[in-house]
Design goal:
- The protein has a domain of about 35 residues: YefM-like domain (YefM-like fold, 3-Layer(aba) Sandwich), CATH 3.40.1620.10.
- It has three helices and three strands.
- The longest helix has 9 residues.
């Protein structure tokens, strides 16, 4: 990570962008105090395709049935 002044950032923006594109993070400072960070943009996540797992899982017919009283009591008394 490098720290550069605002003046240096304005003067050498193309060079700093090239460095950021390679993964380097660059802090831009005004009067010695950090004010911004130049970072590379993360590659977008791959597009999701709905239905890729179709037929690979099974859900019981009673998956949302009420819990038995004895098990429910364990949660309520806990």
């Amino acid at each position: 990570m490098s720290i550069v002044s605002v003046h240096e950032a304005k003067t050498h923006l193309s060079r700093l962008l090239a460095r950021a594109a390679t993964g380097e993070e660059i802090i831009i400072a005004r009067a010695g105090k950090p004010v911004a960070t130049l970072v590379p943009i993360q590659a977008p996540a791959a597009a999701r395709t709905p239905g890729l797992d179709a037929g690979k899982i099974w859900i019981a017919e009673d998956f949302d049935a009420p819990l038995p009283d004895d098990l429910l009591a364990e949660f309520e008394d806990g």
